[in-house]
Amino acid sequence: MKDKTQRSILLACFLAIPTILLFVFVLYPGFKLALISFTDWDGINPNYNYVGLKNYTQVFQRKDIWQSLKNNNLYFMLHLLFIPIEMYLAMLLDRYIKKSEFFKTIVFMPYIINGVAIAYMFSFLYSSEDGVLNGLLALGHIGKIRWLSDPKIVNYSLVVVSLWRFTGVHIILFLAGLQSINKDMLEAALIDGASVFQQFIKIIIPNMKSILSIVLFLNVRGALMVFDIPFVMTSGGPGTSSTTFALHTVKTAFEFSNFGLACAMAIVLIIAIIVISVVQGLVLEPEKFKGKLDKIKGLVKKEKLKVEEVIEKEGERLEEEKSKRVTV
């Protein structure tokens, strides 16, 4: 057997398993999800009817869905406001704290703890009867606060849990970005008399656009898909005041047996994440999109020249045949 044939067989064998897994666990479920989103399937009955865009229309018209998105927006905004603090903490770990490996482990620890365990831990802290926080407030003769049962503050209580869990991984990402910046540049700025704040604005942030883009993507994705914390701690309550979009989707499917609408909500969620990520990339790293656009334009131009060349040769061939016929 020739080497080329052996290489082709080996390559096909290596690619076969991941390709099959991709089709079975990603493409087929995605196709099925999109198909069900156009039906009124209840999740049990084998028969269902196609309802066109009715489910998608409901997604944009129902007030409870918009309310859940408003709760997601609170997660996004508070995480967004926390990003400068995360960058500053990363800079402190990088420059000023000795034996920072210990602190890196400490800040990263919440991310690797199971989300359900974290939710139960904070449920104990927030308990209105014998919780730690209300116990501390009692020492200052302050009345009890209903951290998880007051509709006005429940979402803020849950966002604090989310911040505690995910801030560490953002700090580690920013720390990796800081360590990739050329130290000579920072030393030169220090010699020129630049303050820490000026170095932060003029050197660090511009050189960390890629890391910032990743953190913002994680922020958007995490805010739109937050599920475990409100599900375990409040089940979306009191009422629906802490229900997020993902929690609403799960409830629509498994509590209200409306799988068609739940699938439409999931499709809208996927499209929203993709659109927001593209817009974010255009804003933060326009040069990358410009480079890709120029590359596409170059390919189109190249193909256009090839087509023109083929047309020109075909025209010459036809002219040549025509002149031969005239001669005959």
Separation of termini? 54 Å
Helix count, DSSP H or I runs of 4 or more residues: 14
Please report which band the strand proportion falls in: under 5%, 5-15%, 15-25%, 25-35%, 35-45% or over 45%.
under 5%
Radius of gyration: 28 Å
- Report the count of strand segments: 0
- N-to-C order of helices and strands: HHHHHHHHHHHHHH
Give me the secondary-structure category. mainly alpha
Provide structural commentary:
By secondary structure, this protein is an all-alpha fold. Helices cover 77% and strands 0% of the residues. Helix 2 crosses helix 13, helix 10 runs antiparallel to helix 13 and helix 13 crosses helix 14. The longest helix has 42 residues. The two termini are 54 Å apart. The model has no long low-confidence stretch (mean pLDDT 85).
List the defining traits of the structure above.
328 residues, mainly alpha, 14 helices, 77% helix, extended
How are the SSEs ordered, and which strands pair?
Layout: H1 3-36, H2 54-61, H3 63-95, H4 100-112, H5 115-126, H6 132-139, H7 154-179, H8 183-191, H9 196-204, H10 209-225, H11 228-233, H12 245-254, H13 259-284, H14 286-327
Helix pairs in contact: 2-13, 3-7, 3-10, 4-7, 7-10, 10-13, 12-13, 13-14
